[in-house]
Specification:
Helix 3 packs parallel to helix 4 and helix 5 (177-185) packs across helix 6 (204-213). The protein is built from 10 helices and 14 strands. The two termini are 46 Å apart. By secondary structure, the chain is of the alpha/beta class.
């Protein structure tokens, strides 16, 4: 298959996690920018990354890039791209999203309008027609302009990759599925280790952990925009990618993944979501306040998204909530604590300076992912042959 450049956007601050994930799937990285990773792949890569990536937002086929300082530059640069290699004569095409940072051209609506006109002009010349029915398959386009450099991509995904298909119901202030997965991947947690989320809400962090433990690809039960692009990603390529993902699933495993919340209705949502994800047997949800956080095991992990005070509660209440978490954490045997929050006094309330903290944007909100490391478990002795 012919290779091409593919672009995978992600949450700001998680580029290294996505880069590692793409490398692990067998593809070479060509560039890493704020909020996106560019890599080399083929039609098979389009299908495999869409189905298997836990941290990407979507997968774009890079149509091209160019400099644009004026609207004429944007028009001519867009027109010069080889749209006919991707979009058939009856295709429905439009710029679904445009973003601009530190550039002369900054109006998203104007960028979208100029690029659409340029695409039409290119297609008119190529297909020798004056009007396009746009009655066929959708071909949404996304563009990023950074310091006057325009990068244009064709969106193969459709609905964002964080929409796995299992979270039909949500609690208040849910964390996105791909962000939850990335947070877990920033820790040393593995399927044979304890994981507790004392603020589980609709269950996203425990569910994402269980999906990893059972090796269930996050996109296994959904479809993608490019599944209709037979000329770019043939149906057999999608079939092979889905078959490969199904063969990797193993739900016959033992796990110790727990989610706590104080709201019965929220826990009912979490249990239903876990059932829809096919991992309800791998997670134990229970009603429990953070002051009741405890576990008899050792060397476990607390990975959580506690309230920030942005929506769910008054910030004046946060100090005691985080202090309660800190008190219970001290009583756990050799556990590690990882939490994402925008609460700027989190370390003080926990009662300990974090070993590491990483800046991550949760949507437009700047947060920190704090790592309070426990000791490593002793190495297991190898059995005598």
């Amino acid at each position: 298959m012919n290779t091409m450049e593919l672009i995978a956007p992600c949450h700001f601050g998680l580029e290294a996690v996505l880069k590692r994930e793409i490398n692990d799937l067998g593809y070479d990285i060509s560039e890493v920018d704020d909020g996106r990773v560019t890599f080399i792949g083929d039609a098979e890569a389009v299908a495999r990354i869409n189905i298997n990536s836990r941290t990407a937002e979507r997968v774009l086929i890079k149509v091209g890039s160019f400099d644009a300082y004026t609207w004429d530059d944007l028009f001519e640069g867009t027109k010069a791209l080889m749209w006919e290699e991707y979009i058939p004569s009856d295709g429905r095409f439009w710029v679904t999203k445009a973003s601009s940072v530190k550039s002369r051209l900054f109006s998203p609506s104007d960028i979208q309008s100029v690029m659409k006109k340029a695409m039409v002009e290119r297609m008119k010349q190529t297909y020798h027609v004056e009007r396009f029915p746009e009655s066929g398959t959708d071909y949404p386009v996304r563009t990023f302009i950074y310091k006057d450099k325009v990068t244009v991509g064709l969106d193969t995904t459709g609905d964002s990759l964080h929409k796995r298909g299992y979270r039909l119901l949500t609690a208040k202030a849910p964390i996105a599925e791909n962000l939850a997965a990335a947070l877990i991947m920033l820790t040393p947690w593995r399927a044979d280790r304890i994981l507790v989320d004392p603020f589980c809400g609709s269950g996203t962090i425990p569910i994402e952990a269980a999906l990893m433990a059972a090796n269930i690809a996050p996109g296994l039960n959904r479809e993608f925009r490019a599944s209709e692009w037979e000329q770019i990603v043939p149906a057999r390529v999608w079939k092979d990618a889905y078959d490969e993902a199904r063969e990797m699933v193993n739900t016959d495993i033992e796990t110790d993944i727990q989610g706590y919340d104080i709201d019965d209705e929220v826990l009912a949502v979490a249990r239903r979501n876990a059932e829809l994800a096919g991992v309800n047997k791998l997670i134990h949800f229970q009603k429990r306040d953070v002051s009741e956080l405890r576990h008899p095991g050792r060397y476990g992990f607390i990975i959580t998204n506690p309230p920030y005070g942005e929506r769910l509660m008054d910030r004046s209440e946060l100090g005691e909530l985080y202090a309660a978490l800190g008190r219970q954490y001290k009583g756990l045997n050799d556990f590690s604590l990882y939490m994402i929050t925008s609460y700027d006094e989190a370390e003080k309330a926990i009662g300990r300076k974090a070993d590491k903290n990483r800046k991550i944007y949760n949507g437009m909100l700047q947060t920190r992912f704090y790592s309070f490391m426990g000791p490593k478990p002793p190495k297991r002795r190898q059995e005598n042959a």
